[in-house]
């Protein structure tokens, strides 16, 4: 264990098992949809997405989007900027937005709305590894979630603190951060 990690919440083995399960669940619930785009939000979703798609047993497209949030905006949908790479046609696609963690719901709520409005996505679903259910400030429930997590600041498996710790194979709580 890294010296700055106070405790491990989910081990690498627990994560791998749950992510495989989640991939199979996703695959099943996608039914006979043909145009499926797995859209990862950079950078936090990268490790999760890479493992998840290996358990999806059908040809899917992979895309990535960059999301920037501005200040502590209170608008129900605004103050989040979304850039999708590449700017493909989503008008017949089921877009599964993948993120590391759902916290207040601000990011995914806005991303979902942007994908519908600016990118004319036919259908948008959401899949997060972690769900901090108690923190929600925007109306947003994930279609797929790996684990519920208490209100602590976590790092590892894609999640960062100051852009570090993303490469940890497990998810843990950092020493001396917020509680
Ligand atoms: P939301 O918009 O739902 O409030 O926040 C989602 C984003 O906040 C996540 O994509 C993530 O970047 C960040 N975030 C929320 N909680 C945590 C946490 O415990 N650890 C880390 N590393 N990032 C978090
Ligand atoms: Mg993020």
What is the succession of H and E elements? EHEHEEEHEEEE
Q: Which distinct ligands sit in these coordinates? A: guanosine-5'-monophosphate, magnesium ion
Assembly state of the chains shown: single chain
What fraction, in percent, of the residue positions are helical?
10-25%
- Sheet with most strands: strand arrangement: 4-3-2-5-6-7
**From the alpha-carbon coordinates, what is the Rg to the nearest angstrom?**
16 Å
**Beta strand %:** 25-35%
Note poorly predicted spans: 72-77
Number of helices: 3
Q: How far apart are the first and last residues' alpha carbons, in Å?
A: 20 Å
Task: Give the SSE layout.
Layout: E1 5-10, H1 12-29, E2 36-42, H2 46-52, E3 61-69, E4 80-85, E5 94-102, H3 106-117, E6 123-131, E7 144-148, E8 154-155, E9 171-174
Could you walk me through the main structural features you see in this protein, from its secondary elements to its overall organization?
- The chain is 21% helix and 32% strand.
- It has 179 residues and is of the alpha/beta class.
- It has a six-stranded mixed sheet with strand order 4-3-2-5-6-7, sandwiched between helices. The chain has a three-stranded antiparallel sheet with strand order 1-9-8, covered by helices on one side.
- Residues 41, 44, 100 line the site of magnesium ion.
